[in-house]
Amino acid sequence: MNLREKYGINKNAVITIAGTVGVGKSTMTTALAEALQFKTSLERVNDNPYLDKFYKDFKRWSFHLQIYFLAERFKEQKRMFEYGGGFIQDRSIYEDTGIFAKMHFDKGTMSKVDYETYTSLFEAMVMTPYFPHPDLLIYLEGSLEDILERIKLRGREMEQETPIDYWQEMHSRYEEWINHFNACPILRLNIKDYDLQQENASIESILEQIANKLNTK
Ligand SMILES: Nc1ncnc2c1ncn2[C@@H]1O[C@H](COP(=O)(O)OP(=O)(O)O)[C@@H](O)[C@H]1O
Ligand SMILES: Nc1ncnc2c1ncn2[C@H]1C[C@H](O)[C@@H](COP(=O)(O)O)O1
């Protein structure tokens, strides 16, 4: 019996991993997909044509970047739908609008007209048959201090040069956002409570919590 069967997790489930930059979404996505024998939908960073430019000049590139991410995530959404599920997704589409686009609009680095264009496109795309909500959103949380340490350790140049205020603002917006999120069930995991790099047992404890959430939906 494999781990998915052991914990009674539906083979067509779609589980999305949410949380601020550097918290450990990609690491968790890969570990869960391996444990459950699910496919991954990973956020691609290296071949993003706007990300570097965006970090150098938010105002100039924020709209372009949001449109790019929206298109990429929508294509992934379509792929998951066509496969019929069985996916772990690295970051939810809800964070693009609920965290990033909103933050840049509020801070004046995205204009009102761009923000309205973006949100109306987002709403039109989400109201389609390709867009069933995920079965579960796993929210990874941790202290700002630990997250900054991880961003530093990972060493992406564009993120190192970004002022700490940006990460601090994002961190507090995430806390507020998750407290009001209700599109699907949520499992909150604190990064202090598991260690995917050292302990094999961590993944089984997480699978058990996932099964409890999915089966009590
Ligand atoms: N459980 C963990 N313990 C220690 N370090 C971790 C853990 N998960 C991720 N990391 C490290 O933190 C950094 C960010 O992780 P990553 O998965 O890329 O985050 P995200 O996808 O949320 O931006 C990476 O250097 C990764 O190796
Ligand atoms: N929607 C987004 N707007 C701006 N920046 C974004 C968005 N989605 C992701 N990003 C950035 C943040 C990071 O620098 C990279 C990858 O995100 P990560 O949380 O490390 O997976 O893209």
UniProtKB/TrEMBL annotation:
Keywords: ATP-binding, Kinase, Nucleotide-binding, Transferase
Record's keyword annotation contains Kinase: yes
Entry protein name: Deoxycytidine kinase
UniProt similarity note: Belongs to the DCK/DGK family.
UniProt cross-references to InterPro entries, sorted A to Z: DCK/DGK (IPR002624), Deoxyribonucleoside_kinase (IPR050566), DNK_dom (IPR031314), P-loop_NTPase (IPR027417)
Catalytic machinery residues: 90 (proton acceptor)
GO terms of molecular function: ATP binding; deoxynucleoside kinase activity
